[in-house]
Write a structure and sequence with these properties.
Mean pLDDT: 81
CATH topology of the largest domain: MetI-like fold
Structural class: mainly alpha
CATH architecture of the largest domain: Orthogonal Bundle
Radius of gyration: 32 Å
Number of domains: 2
Shape: flat
Distance between the termini: 94 Å
CATH superfamily of the largest domain: MetI-like
Strand order of the largest sheet: 1-2
CATH class of the largest domain: Mainly Alpha
Low-confidence stretches: none
Number of strands: 2
Strand content: under 5%
């Protein structure tokens, strides 16, 4: 008689609890947050690296200007050489007697006055082309753009023959050079202003001058600041017209800077000190208007 073995008891496996949809969504959001954090850290690190690459020549020029001529001309460069301000003293005429102040004043006058005239002319033009558009406004914008297509050298000889080298001549030239850019920029800024605000001001009895002063200028302030800064930089850095047309009475800072490259050689410390001193007003203006510059450049970029 055969006997059957008793059945082996089977151990029941516990049922696995599946996550709820809310938990799945919460876990997905956490993973997305971690990935965005890592991506942001990588982009931030890349931005710092790119920024340092752009700033490193300026820092190198600043360090070279604080060295003596002997230490600045060594190869390889002596990074830990003693620091001195002799190059800046030579630039401001402590030993040579050649003062850079007339050139700096001429550049400041030409840049500031031309920028003010450009803004005074570009604001009404941009208002007419954006808020109160005229017929065939695109043809007008193309005309402004076509004025930049003429090579600068082509108009240099006639101006040299008929014009007299003065700061007033530079103001007129810089105004004509920067006006098309200013009109294009200001039109993109003014086109972002809602027309309803202007209509409400007009219904309240405000005339055109009041609308400009109390509505348009405050709203488009960042755009005006960025346009003014760009026009100032273009005027301050202009070299071709200034070097050919101006004489000793109207010499500008970039022309004065080129005078440090002589047949006697290139004095690196002195040239770097001069470049830092000439670039200092532009750097100060850029840092002073940094927040408005960012707002202005992004004002007409996204609709």
């Amino acid at each position: 008689m055969t006997t059957t073995a008793p059945p082996v008891p089977t151990k029941r496996m516990p049922l696995t609890a599946f996550p709820s949809p809310k938990e799945l969504a919460r876990a997905k959001r956490a993973r997305d947050r971690q990935s965005r954090t890592k991506r942001g850290m990588l982009l931030g690190l890349l931005a710092w690296i790119v920024g340092l690459l752009f700033v490193s020549p300026v820092l190198w020029m600043l360090l070279t200007s604080l060295h003596s001529e002997t230490n600045a001309a060594t190869n390889p460069p002596s990074l830990f050489a003693p620091l001195t301000l002799d190059a800046y003293a030579n630039f401001f005429g402590a030993n040579s007697g050649a003062s850079p102040w007339p050139a700096l004043i001429n550049s400041a006058m030409a840049s500031v006055f031309s920028t003010a005239i450009v803004l005074a002319l570009a604001l009404p033009a941009a208002y007419a082309l954006s808020i109160r558009p005229i017929k065939k406004w695109s043809d007008v914008m193309f005309f402004f753009l076509s004025t930049k297509m003429l090579p600068v050298v082509a108009g240099l000889l006639p101006i040299y023959l008929i014009a007299r080298a003065t700061v007033l001549l530079l103001i007129i030239l810089y105004t004509s050079m920067n006006l098309p850019i200013a009109v294009w920029m200001m039109r993109s800024f003014l086109s972002e202003i809602p027309v309803e605000i202007l209509e409400a001001a007009s219904i309240d009895g405000a005339n055109l001058f009041t609308i400009f002063r109390r509505v348009i200028i405050p709203i488009s302030g960042p755009g005006i600041a960025s346009t003014a800064l760009i026009c100032f930089i273009f005027s301050w850095n202009e070299l071709l017209f200034a070097s050919v047309l101006t004489s000793t009475q109207a010499i500008t800072a970039p022309v004065f800077l080129t005078g440090f490259v002589t047949s006697q050689g290139l004095f690196l410390a002195k040239v770097c000190a001069a470049a830092i001193a000439v670039s200092f007003p532009v750097l100060v203006a850029g840092f002073a208007a940094q927040d408005k510059l960012v707002q202005g450049l992004s004002l007409g970029a996204v609709k």
